[in-house]
Amino acid sequence: MSTNPGTVEDIHAVLRRVWGYSQFRPRQEEIVRAALSGTDTLALLPTGGGKSLCFQVPALAMGKLCLVVSPLIALMKDQVGRLKKQGVPARAIISTMTQAEIDNALESAALGKYAFLYVSPERLASDLFLARLPRLPLGLIAVDEAHCISQWGYDFRPAYLNIAKVREVRPEVPVIALTASATQTVANDIMERLAFKAPHVIRGSFQRPELTLWISRGEDKNGRLLRVLRHIEGTAIVYVRERRATARIAALLQQHGISSAAYHAGLAPEERDRIQQAWTEGALRCMVATNAFGMGIDKADVRVVVHLEPPPDLESYYQEAGRAGRDGKPSSAFLLTGPGDTKKMEERFAGSFPSLDQVRKVYQAFADTHGIALGSGLLETYEVDNRSLANRTGLPPVVVAHALKALELDGKLVLSEGVRSPSRVLIIADQRLVYGKRVNDNRHGPVLEALLRTYGGLFEEPVLIDELRLAKGLKWQVETVVKRLEELHQQQVISYRKRSDSPTATFLTPRADAQRLVLDPAALAQRQQRALHRLKAMIAFVEEDDECRARRLIRYFGEEVEKDCGTCDVCRSRLAYDRSTPSTTGVAEPTGLSVEAARLLRWELDEEAG
199: burial class by Cβ within 10 Å (0-12, 13-18, 19+)? Predict the structure, then answer.
């Protein structure tokens, strides 16, 4: 941060000092300077384009607080962790925090202790946040995953509309909105909903000339996958649609001598961390994963991404495929399709819109599981167990998941994947009371003494603790330590949040009578129509071979290119037909020519030989 809030530090000096980079990537500097000039800006950069630096650099140059609105706890925690490692003070307010912790974080932000404050959009409407908002020393508001504010976006979140209310209170603070995937319609909607003073879009090119897009059709997906990974050396990601498929494919690859591991949201956080670390460090070549793997990946040398089934839309496809080749070196993205894939996509689409009766059943079961009384639960966070809810309702777990998603998209609650949240303690009583308990309370004094001797800063902000470490020091059972901490929490001496690894749901409205629960029918119909449009675009991309893959994909995002890529399966197929045009790419199809292309090439060779 600059030492004088009235001055602006040179942006290149910030880039070198904090990140050690000598220059910006394409379009980054233009976006940074727009933010510094106070211009509301929508930055459209593809995956791997360096979006986070676009708001982090100007905020640090200003020396003021940057409010970052982000929908994903995992992404917030990842960015805060990286900033802290670089010596930048940052804090995230997430759903697993207690009221005391949230209050402490907001007050610290108001006092200028942080350079970045990350919040979910749902928190923007809370009384605690709105009370502090006028006092926050804001220099910039950054809206990450900004497509979520648009009803035309592929993951609309009603809570994103709260950002406009923040702008009403602090109209002098410029906004920078960032997303990797927005059509022109979505871009216009984002700027309107964020109350831009004037439309201003800086669009990075979605062209990835180093990335070869290839669609391969056939029966034997496993065989084609093995041929791809044998032909292309280096780090790989294999995406599948279901959790159980991750273990099956990882085992197949291991049997063929390819070091692999399965990754999905159902694994324990420690296991996910261990696997991702091994893959990041190169000890593991191939990650076989659901779409839970992706956020916060900082690995530039991924050489190949393989999809064993088509994703639900082109936005997801390009984001996942784009994780290959971030170092600018030649890389490949393969989509392996087979008979029945299109039908599966259509069936998944049909199943992703449960009936109102099914949604009501899941809502009632969730309230019963956690004992949430009518009219209560506002901004309270509860663990989610889809299998338990499935048993209570008699519905398949996938229907339960989609019912919860429907409630989220209607603004009733917000879901968070399982993210490791270690135990933490903040002392909220005054020091005299705490001293008295340490001296006179034989039941709770020892654990307070152990906390203060083991950890520092407990009166200032929540501190991560380890109950096992405390138990060893006290020569107590871990269960006893936990019980004493919970009692101190109930007595409002400390704020104690026990470790949690489970997915959660936070109620955004008080619990209602399930039988009277309604979902906005017009919004539901629009959402279904938009999802169908995206599905049809994905199916057309997979099934039609009349246009360069890269050209078709980039046009979908509103950008036109002058020429075909020359490396995708469509372009290479044309080269196979027209052998008078030499290839300059050096890219061959790892899975072998298609049957039709091979037949035509054989005819040509036979004619030449004749």
Answer: exposed
